[in-house]
Amino acid sequence: MQGRGVDEGRKERELSIYIHWPFCRSKCPYCxxxxxxxxxxxxxxxxxxxxxxxxxxxxxKNSLRELESPFVKTIFFGGxxxxxxxxxxxxxxxxxxxxxxxxxxxxxxxxxxxxxxxxRQKLREIREAGVNRLSxxxxxxxxxxxxxxxxxxxxxxxxxxxxxxxxxxxxxxFDFIFGxxxxxxxxxxxxxxxxxxxGCPHISCxxxxxxxxxxxxxLLQDGKINxxxxxxxxxxxRFIQDFLKEFSLNRYEISNYALKNFESxxxxxxxxxxNYLGVGPSAHSRLVFGDKKYELKxxxxxxxxxxxxxxxxxxxxxxxxxxxxxxxxEIFVMGLRLSEGISIKDLKxxxxxxxxxxxxxxxxxxxxxxxxxxSETQIKLSENGVLKQNSVLEFxxx
Length: 398
Ligand code: SF4
Hints:
There is one protein chain. By secondary structure, the protein is α/β, with parallel strands linked by helices. Strand 9 and strand 10 form a beta hairpin. A 9-stranded mixed beta sheet has the order 9-10-8-7-6-5-4-1-11, with helices on both faces. The chain has a 3-stranded antiparallel beta sheet with strand order 12-13-14, with no helix packed on it. The N terminus is likely disordered. The chain is globular, with a radius of gyration of 21 Å.
């Protein structure tokens, strides 16, 4: 897809756009994302659907208008379940960006899809609308796991959806959730083998987490389900990494594995601490205005988000300037997730010696404990350090 042209000399204005679709068919018991369960939202006729489509576009237009010459590198439809959107809605959003802003000639346009929400025909229409990367939330190919995770499809539907995605897109990802007591390493192996057999070029493996306010958190508190042990966590992590490596799917981020050149460009924006704009209720942004970097968040409450847009107000619930130290901390939180790590040259060009040196001293202490494996140019965690990332960050910044 070609936009109004490229703008290579203006790297500081590079932008990724995240669009948050706020509805799902039903709520999964482990999920704490902003999503409203709606089993009956009619994408063709309902007024409510049309209104949300209109508001997302308005939010996008208002937000982009505030930015100086953005050069759009990626668009990501997330949620919620954005595969419930109509391909026509996706096309309107994509066309608005591509026709009005400068875009990368290789712009990546991704969509998260739930296996129960599309047919082969719809997926083709989604591709024709301009989406060129599909991220399928498989979670597992096994009925017992899908039932436990409260997913709205069975293994047969998951396999069929995977086949449809693999035959419609060349750039796609399968997401899996691991790390619960009823799942064995053999189950995990089976899931990954199936993904590899499809020829899947990108796989995300997320460990199940128990977030406050979710039904799974309550079950955990009541002792009705258990977390896996730390030893099991390490065993799963090592297994996934070693298994996928054999098929050239290399870990490039703590939970993400890809063939060369199939890494998610959009997600790399977050991990490399570049600028991104979040559109839709609850969406976060990191943007530069003038010479200051801001953290911004749209209203999470859908009514307040809606009202602010009708009032022609910015839909930001929060807009805070990030201090240099906060930015440094965020760079480490995101960058240490990456296998490539953090560029030392970039750090030195952005931060003063007095701010950087205490952190570098602590890193050198941790290197002696085999938690870092830095190169001449990059600060990066060792494999041992990856497994202790939270404690490392606490040591560096507390
Ligand atoms: S489908 Fe995804 S966003 Fe929706 S409730 Fe389940 S995990 Fe959350």
